[in-house]
Structures are given as C-alpha cells and as structure tokens.
Amino acid sequence: MVWIHNDLRKTHFHNYTDEEIRKFFGFDKILVISEQIKADFENLAQNEDQKSRIVRIYNPLDTEEVISKSQEVGSGKLEDQQPLTNNDQPTFVSVGTVFPQKGFDRLLKVHKRLLEEGFQHKIQIVGDGYDFENIKKLRSELGVENTAEMIGFTDNPYPYFKNADFYVLSSRYEGFPTVLFEAITLKKKIIATEVSGVGEMLEYGKLGLMVENSEEGIYSGMKKALENPEFFEKYNHNLNDYEMPFNLENSVKSIRKIIDNL
C-alpha cells in the first residue's frame, strides 16, 4: 500500500511522467489525498483492476486538537502577541507560509482599495517565509501598517482563526490547501480563490465563497463580506450540518477498513 500526499506532476523535486506514475499500480492500494489526484490516476489505469486500487483518503486532521488550541490566548514564540481582534471592525485572517504563491501581496492591495472606498476592516497575515520582508515592505508602501497586522511565525495559529470574522485564501495556486480544513473545523466564513482543491474542499460553494483567482476576485469576495455579511450565514448553516471526512477518527476508520480488506 502506498499513500500519495502530493500531486506527482507538481512536486518541488521532480515532476513525474505518466510512465513513472503507472509504476504505482504495482501496489495493492494507492491512497491519494484528493479527487483530482484520484482522477489523474484513474486516467492512467489500464484496466478496472488498477482503477479499483485507487482510494481517496484525506490527510487526517486532529479536529479536537484544533478546537482545543483555538481556545488558547497567545501563541507560540510571539508571547507578546494577543490573537484577539477588536470587535469594532470586521477582521479577515489568512494563514500560510509567506511565499509569492500565497498571494498576500494581492490581499494587501485589496485591503488598501477597500479602505479607500470607505470599508473599515482589518487583516491579519499569520506565517513566515522568504517573502515576508517583501510583503512587509509592500504594507509600508501602501500605508496600511495600522490596519494590516503581520503576525509572523507561530506554532499555534488557531486563536487567530477563531477570533477573526472571515478566513481568506488569496493563493495564486495550491496543491490541496489543508488550511481550509482547519478553517472549516472552526466554522469560519471562508473566501477562497478557485485554485486546485478548493472546489472539492468547499463542496463547490456549499461551505464557503469561491472567487475568481485574481486580485479582482479577492476584492469582490471581501467587498461582499463587508457590504452584506448576512450572505455568509448560509455557509454557517451548512457547516453546522457538515460531517468532516478528514477528521482523525474518520480517516483512521477508513484506513483500517482498507487494511482489513487487503
């Protein structure tokens, strides 16, 4: 049995060819983390027996731990930070490694544009990475230091999730952004660009607002949140009824069932 945790065509070290991917059919079961990757393998399968070996299992998430850690005040190495947002203005949070692909530059530009249009709000960017100083410089150039907070690295981002009004995924591209499963676990109102995996994770718009993968798309989503926050209530209702297939207990049950049937 083998568990594929990435899109093999888009890895950091090597982009697999069709011939290389077909070698995985030598395993009794091929576990993959998304429907998109499953479909790719199915297209390469040469018979029904090979297709039957492919099973989609999401990366397990300890949802109980996420919920528990979200109750903590203060986080990780930034003891002086208090992840409590002011209730006087809506707050948007975005969490991730600060790389260009995450689109934090787009998020800051949209933030500035909305402020200029009179929509008072705040944003928080949680994470560190090689592009951190560039994003910090852009924040200064845009003059939004007082409304855009750059938290940096923390080993517990969940209080920031919990205390924000909205979660924003501003990415230019992704493989399978599991950060959305964390936002879903904490029942956040989500705005996400339509990158790989987002449709599947948000059940194609049932669990959050999917927007065009562009600065304009992010702008339209955040503006909708500020103009008409009631619009997002339908997502809350759906999240309350949602059974999380990615939680640790469900994932373990699925894996045990597969092993028992080998």
UniProtKB/TrEMBL annotation:
GO terms for molecular function: glycosyltransferase activity. It comes from the Bacteria. InterPro entries: Glyco_trans_1. Residues 80-236 form the Glycosyl transferase family domain. This is Glycosyl transferase family 1 domain-containing protein. It comes from Kaistella haifensis DSM 19056. The lineage of its organism: Bacteria, Pseudomonadati, Bacteroidota, Flavobacteriia, Flavobacteriales.
